[in-house]
Amino acid sequence: MKCILGSLVCAAAVFGGCGAEEPRAQVLSAQDSIEGRGITEWTESWFHWNFAVPASQNPALVLEADCGVGQSEPVFFVPLYDGAKRYQRTCHVPAGRPVLVPLWAVINDYPCPDSSFEPAPGQSLEDFLAQGAIAYNALVRELAVTLDGEAIDPTAHRHTTGLFNFTADPSLVGKLPDACLQGTSQPGVSDGWWLMLSLPPGDHVVHVTGVDPSNDAIDYTYRLAVSP
After folding, report:
1. Beta bridge partners of 105
2. What is the pLDDT of residues 10-31, one digit of tens each?
3. Which of 101, 132, 159, 178 is deepest in the core (most CB within 10 A)?
4. What pLDDT score was predicted for residue 20?
5. What is the distance between the alpha carbons of residues 215 and 184, in angstroms, rounded to a whole number?
């Protein structure tokens, strides 16, 4: 039976469905854009948000914190948690918003207390910070991710930013594992693996495993409950 969807009810649904597939979670390609901005740019915005939330309610420090605290962008940012290398986190996501999930990401920022942390003669600050971030992430091994049980190849979703400025809330200085945070505007470059997702209403699970640069196993589970 042919079904017409929209403002009309599909009559075949009375007899067990009209044959239309249920909406499924989708992974956007690394080249896609949202609101005129590429996904790499959205990873910069993720860091702006992450560093703007005070320590007392920052999801990077408080596993039970509301994932949506301080969020006003058209993309929903899923937070990392710096308190453990194995954890599960549940986030309540508003319907209709793309969802940015960090699988593994670092930011290399400047300046730092170490006086030797400087570009080589003739090297730009951007190249210097990018080189350090990429070299650090080269030590990540066996990174694997599933979305609702289906394997996704993370190698197609690596993003390295250009130089950008961010400001960390002063309460985060000394709390986050970044000795270079100043609590004032400073430059940085980020590198890492991210998924930008389009999720229909319902419950979705992103599971990330791998071995970090310290040779420790990581195992993160993000339960994303998308409102109807």
Report:
1. 192
2. 333 333 444 456 789 999 999 9
3. 101
4. 57
5. 32
Percent over 70 (pLDDT), the chain: 91
Q: Please tell me the distance from the alpha carbon of residue 144 to that of residue 158, in angstroms, as a whole number.
A: 13
Provide the residue type at 3 as one letter: C
- Please answer whether residues 75 and 45 qualify as being in contact, where contact means their C-beta atoms are separated by less than 8 angstroms: yes
User: 5: which 2 tokens?
Assistant: 């969807």
Residue 93 · residue 102 · CB < 8 Å:
no
131 phi, psi to nearest 5 deg: -60, -45
User: ω into residue 154 within 30 of 0, thus cis?
Assistant: no
For 142, list phi and psi in degrees, rounded to 5. Answer: 55, 35
pTM for the whole structure: 0.89
Q: Residue 33 forms beta bridges with which residues?
A: 38
Strand-pair partners of 166: 186
Residue type at 158?
R
Task: Give the distance from CA 217 to its chain's centroid.
Answer: 19
Distance of CA 96 to the CA centre of its chain: 17
Using alpha carbons, select from 189, 179, 167, 169 the residue that is nearest to residue 44: 189
Q: Using one digit for the tens of pLDDT, what is the confidence trace for 74-112?
A: 999 999 999 899 999 999 999 999 999 999 999 999 999
